[in-house]
Write a structure and sequence with these properties.
3 domains; alpha+beta; Uridine Diphospho-n-acetylenolpyruvylglucosamine Reductase, domain 3; 12 helices; about 290 residues
């Protein structure tokens, strides 16, 4: 299929792009990597009258570590560039690992980190990683700029807190505490497919040897990334190395009891719950092994 007719512009500055987004006479969409938008255009699931290509705006193509230690990823930064950046792999290895699960190299070479986050497919890896890493979104619009936490940004399937006349200019990932291990696990029918179920885990080892801090976030378990405080509390009960196995098993059991995932042609809800328990225990073990890295 071919997309419905549309106009195309490629502004060179952010103010110019925002002026195009303020067009109230036409439906306007922002184009960055296009790996989600272009298929929707071709299937005519999206029919914008104007595409605003933001890839030529220099200030949106920056990837750097800020003074407070946070990683800032501009809206034009490709997923592949983040995946191979040594500063990212050193400070935010969960992000590197999550990107490795996205589609295939051709998709990661074109797709942007912010584009995937704004698209917000609840089975996608990056929204899950963003919630686990306490990400914050920088938004610009005609009323000025604002910052939104990841927990408030993702609303429902393909729906975020971004207004129609706003652009996500960057996403910032908080610096992680020392002795933090990570793991991103998912199950899919084939390598590169969307996850049938997936989980991101961050564990920070206390000096005494127990779990000091935990983050557990699932993808493909609902209409948005799902953080599980019940599983995190079970992990925090491991106040010494001898209690780790019991804590990991309790976290898995909590996930199985708490999750209410959908059933579809790929998997039913009970399979997803059982797989979630197994994946979480596996991810906890991998994350703990990395707390000493």
């Amino acid at each position: 299929m071919k997309p419905a007719p549309f106009d195309y512009v490629a502004p060179g500055t952010l103010p110019e792009a925002l002026r195009f987004l303020a067009d109230e006479e036409r439906e306007v969409k922002v184009l960055a990597g296009g790996q989600s938008l272009v298929p929707m255009l071709n299937m005519r699931l999206a029919r914008p009258e104007l595409l605003v290509d933001i890839t030529r705006i220099p200030e949106l193509r920056t990837l750097d570590v800020e003074g407070d230690g946070a990683l800032r990823v501009g809206a034009g930064v490709r997923q592949a560039a983040v995946a191979v950046d040594p500063a990212v792999s050193a400070g935010w290895p969960l992000l590197t690992e999550a990107i490795g699960h996205i589609g295939h190299p051709q998709i990661r070479n074109r797709g942007t980190v912010c584009g995937s986050l704004v698209h917000h497919d609840p089975a996608a890896e990056l929204p899950t990683a963003a919630l686990a890493l306490d990400a914050r979104f920088d938004l610009s619009g005609p009323a000025g700029t604002r910052t939104v936490d990841a927990d408030d940004f993702f609303l429902s399937t393909f729906l975020t807190a971004l207004e129609a006349d706003e652009i996500v200019t960057s996403v910032r990932f908080a610096a992680q505490p020392p002795r933090t291990g990570w793991a991103f696990e998912e199950l899919a029918r084939r390598r590169g497919d969307f996850a049938a179920i997936g989980v991101a885990v961050l564990l920070t080892r206390a000096e005494a040897g127990g779990v000091e801090r935990a983050r557990v976030v699932f993808c493909a378990a609902g209409s948005r990334p799902l953080r599980l405080p019940e599983a995190e509390e079970a992990l925090l009960a491991a106040d010494g190395p001898e209690r780790l196995d019991d804590a990991f098993a309790a976290a898995g059991a909590a996930a199985r009891a708490r999750l209410d995932p959908p059933s579809d042609v790929h998997a039913d809800a009970e399979w997803r719950r059982e797989a979630a328990e197994t994946l979480l225990v596996r991810a906890c073990n991998r994350a703990w092994e990395r707390t000493g890295d």
